[in-house]
Design a protein that fits this description.
Layout lengths: L2 H17 L65 E9 L10 H14 L2 E5 L4 H10 L3 E4 L8 E4 L3 E11 L9 E12 L2 E11 L13 H24 L3 E7 L16 E2 L7 E6 L6 E10 L7 E9 L6
Parallel strand pairs: 1-2, 7-8
Antiparallel strand pairs: 1-12, 2-4, 3-4, 5-6, 6-7, 8-10, 9-10, 11-12
Helix pairs in contact: 2-3
């Protein structure tokens, strides 16, 4: 197509639009009203089952592994306390008086023997420093009471709580007659299903040579010292009973019951027959812990004293009705 032909076609189209006249006016008839439509309720878009839904996965921080939901931790139940508490009590004189000390291997063997007998030990004649060191080393996993300032320490396993500890000198050194003597004790506590238990664990070592039939010149002095020791110990036992504390005790009494050894209180009972001078006893308080003996044993040691053990069951005081 040439330029002349295009211009002519354009002029012809303009002329035809002029011949057609102006556009028709808008109709004056109002439109028919339409029924109002119900307003649309917005709805949550639900993705089509056919179309997969993209989920953004946020990776864990560097160095952390993805974690899954964990259940809330539950508190572990504490074990129920026993109905009664058991105590194996041993009195052990580990021969260590001046001029009567044993060789260290024999001392250690006796301490090991005592340790195997039970959880509570009443030791006597722990005078030499090497004996004291051996006691601390052998019973490092237990309470060792009053070993530094006394020759008769009290040892007990750590399931017991130590509420008090005490020591009193009963006899001072008398050259040629006796080394110093003392009374030692621990106030212990434990828990049972029916309530707490408290009692006293007491240890002692009386003056020797007062009631063994010897006729030495200083026997009257030894007897006076022995009697004073006994009166002082009786006062402590009765005072603890007045506080509602049963006393479980023992030691080397250096006197037999057949030689006039008397109980400290009317309620006290000896745990062994009248054999030897090594004793165990229970002096119950009227409202104190109840103690029952279930077994007894005597064991020969390197020392010149046998070790005596009593297995006890200890329960809280009966509740008043």
């Amino acid at each position: 197509m040439t330029l002349r032909t295009s211009v002519g076609a354009l002029i012809g189209a303009v002329g035809l639009s002029l011949l057609a006249g102006p556009p028709a006016p808008a109709s004056s008839v109002p439109p028919t009203p339409s029924t109002p439509s119900t307003p649309s309720i917005p709805s949550t878009a639900v993705p089509s089952a056919a179309a997969p839904v993209a989920v953004a996965v946020v990776p864990p921080p560097l160095g952390e592994a993805p974690s899954s939901p964990r259940p809330a931790p539950t508190a572990a139940r504490a074990p129920r306390p026993p109905a009664v508490l058991r105590l194996a009590l041993t009195t052990a004189n580990v021969r260590g008086a001046p001029s009567h000390e044993m060789a260290q291997p024999r001392v250690q063997a006796d301490l090991d023997l005592a340790a195997r007998r039970g959880g509570a030990l009443l030791l006597q004649e722990i005078w030499p420093v090497r004996y004291k060191r051996a006691v601390r080393r052998t019973f490092a996993d237990r309470h060792v009471g009053l070993v530094r300032r006394s020759s008769n320490p009290v040892v007990v396993d750590r399931r017991w709580r130590v509420l008090e500890r005490g020591r009193v000198t009963t006899t001072r050194t008398v050259p040629g007659t006796t080394p110093p003597r003392s009374l030692t004790w621990l106030v212990l506590a434990g828990d049972t299903a029916s309530g707490p238990v408290r009692f006293v664990l007491m240890n002692t070592h009386f003056v020797a040579g007062a009631w063994n039939g010897r006729r030495d010149a200083d026997v009257p002095l030894r007897q006076r010292l022995w009697d004073r020791h006994y009166r002082l110990m009786r006062r402590y036992v009765t005072d603890f009973n007045a506080r509602g504390l049963t006393v479980v005790g023992g030691g080397d009494f250096n006197r037999r019951r057949s030689d006039g050894l008397l109980p400290f209180t009317d309620r006290q009972r000896w745990l062994f027959d009248d054999v030897g001078v090594d004793k165990l006893f229970v002096a119950p308080a009227p409202r104190g812990a109840r103690v029952r003996v279930v077994a007894r044993a005597t064991t020969q040691a390197n020392s010149d004293h046998d070790f005596r053990t009593a297995w006890l069951r200890i329960a809280p005081a009966e509740r008043s009705r």
